[in-house]
Amino acid sequence: MNEDMLAKVKETMAINRRIRMGLERRFKVGANRPKISLGQYTLLTVLDEFGEAPMGDVAKEMGLSLGGLTGLVDRVIGMGFVERFRIPEDRRIVKVGLTAKGRETLQAILDVDREFAASVLSQLTEEEIQTFLKVFGMMANGLKNEEPVTTKVMQ
Q1: Cβ atoms < 10 Å from Cβ of 64
Q2: For the chain, which residues make up each domain, given as ranges?
Q3: How far is CA 39 from the centre of its chain?
Q4: Burial class of residue 65, CB neighbours in 10 A (0-12, 13-18, 19+)
């Protein structure tokens, strides 16, 4: 890797770190926002998108080990946001799904987050927004096919 590319990689990593730290802070102190971790939020959004799903499928979607997901699910079950159950047709399969409280909590979070995202995007020109969306989409598509580097769950 040449020096120019190395400098760009370092800058990208620094920006990514600042974004992750900012998101973590936001999840801990956001006004009018239920207090859940980024990992818990991610679980709620995955279950909202896919509905009731087998634990293995959710773990794969989130890039977690089944053990890592089990700990995370245990915590959100304790909060009343998720339920875990077996299906009668095959008792070996354990599924998880959102409770009514989980859906309400996620909706409250998404409402606040939409306002935040709108305030950030309002500072950009239409061209900058389109570039941002294109680059983020490319990054998301590239990462979707990657194997997880770690199975540590953010708490």
Answers
A1: 23
A2: 1-30, 34-144
A3: 6
A4: middle
d(C-alpha 54, C-alpha 39), whole Å: 18
Give the Cα separation of 45 and 4 in Å (integer).
38
Residues 6+ apart with CB under 8 A from 39: 72, 153, 154, 155
Residue type, 127: E
DSSP class of residue 81? S
Tell whether the torsion through CA atoms of 10, 12, 30 and 72 is positive or negative.
negative
What pLDDT is stored for residue 146 in this prediction?
A: 54
Per residue of the chain (155 residues), give pLDDT as tens. Answer: 899 999 988 998 898 888 878 777 766 655 566 778 888 999 999 999 999 999 999 999 999 999 999 999 999 999 999 999 998 888 889 999 999 999 999 998 888 888 888 888 899 999 999 998 998 888 878 766 555 443 333 32
How many Å apart are CA 75 and CA 88, to the nearest integer?
A: 25
Domain range 34-144, CATH class: mainly alpha
